[in-house]
Backbone:
């Protein structure tokens, strides 16, 4: 398994350049995946540089880099500060987060992430986690299913989706991605099925992996882990993620409300380097269609 097969990094050069990596710096890549970003970060670090990468998916461990400057942490990035403290590296120079699902996870049918590949309803990035897509679909109450689809998908027919799932599981459990696709596809016209199903699968995946909770935990820790002048680079793939990142960079909270002291002075941990997110070029979109929804935001620690 090569990293190019495992995952094609999005906004690759742009994100690495944005990290502004010093030769003797300490850099964190919280989404190791196929190791594409991590390898280039190591190329730009000198002999005294250090790179710590995180990935909770055991499959990513096969892409481990043989380099004395490299540490791979097999854990969710929501525990970022615990490991940075463990390795005595507080005050790092840059943090990169390339969010979402890797090409490998989408393309491996038995992981349950893809609407095209048949597999068990799983969607766990950490296969040791207790919550799976199977549990969400077969055991969540209708109220909880409404919450999931209303929170994490832009559906026009949430009621029909929930009622279809509820009616089917009363007859027999929904076991596979194909069964779920076959059940829900008739709810929309054929030309809208792909986008509709992608939204449904996205919502379930976010719930299974508590992606928004983990993202918020990680961002709050970045403001403590980074040194003054350190860079934060985040690539997101849907509007929910991007809104969280934008609000946090803008205000230091997730509501986007600026915190002012009694003198009206604004206090926030970051300043945005790009007020509008960077998006892939036409050439990258042609080369890698999966990059079409990517947005990159860059900030510097105050």
Residues:
């Amino acid at each position: 398994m090569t990293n190019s097969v495992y995952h094609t990094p999005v906004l690759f050069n742009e994100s690495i350049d944005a990290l502004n990596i010093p030769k003797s710096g300490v850099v964190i890549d919280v989404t190791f995946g196929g190791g594409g970003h991590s390898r280039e970060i190591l190329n730009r670090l000198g002999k005294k540089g250090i790179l710590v990468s995180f990935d909770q998916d055991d499959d990513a461990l096969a892409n481990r880099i043989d380099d004395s400057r490299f540490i791979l942490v097999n854990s969710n990035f929501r525990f970022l500060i615990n490991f940075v403290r463990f390795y005595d590296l507080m005050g790092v120079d840059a943090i990169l987060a390339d969010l979402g699902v890797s090409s490998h996870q989408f393309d491996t049918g038995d992981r349950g992430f893809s609407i095209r590949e048949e597999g068990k309803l799983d969607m766990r990035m950490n296969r040791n986690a207790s919550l799976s897509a199977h549990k969400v679909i077969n055991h969540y109450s209708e109220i909880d299913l409404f919450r999931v689809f209303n929170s994490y998908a832009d559906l026009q027919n949430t009621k029909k989706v929930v009622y279809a799932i509820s009616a089917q599981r009363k007859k027999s459990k929904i076991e596979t991605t194909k069964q779920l696709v076959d059940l829900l596809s008739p709810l929309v016209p054929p030309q809208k099925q792909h986008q509709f199903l992608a939204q449904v699968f996205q919502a379930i995946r976010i719930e299974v992996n508590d992606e928004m909770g983990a993202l918020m935990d990680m961002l709050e820790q970045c403001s403590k882990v980074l040194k003054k002048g350190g860079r934060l680079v985040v690539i997101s793939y849907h509007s929910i993620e991007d809104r969280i990142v934008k609000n946090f960079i803008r205000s230091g909270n997730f509501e986007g409300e600026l915190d002012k002291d009694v003198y009206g002075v604004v206090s926030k941990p970051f300043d945005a380097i790009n007020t509008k997110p960077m998006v892939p070029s036409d050439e990258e979109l042609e080369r890698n269609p999966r990059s079409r929804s990517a947005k990159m935001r860059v900030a510097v620690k105050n």
Observations:
- The chain has two domains: 3-103+211-301, 109-209.
- The domain at 3-103+211-301 is CATH 3.40.50.150 (Rossmann fold).
- The first strand starts at residue 26 and ends at 29.
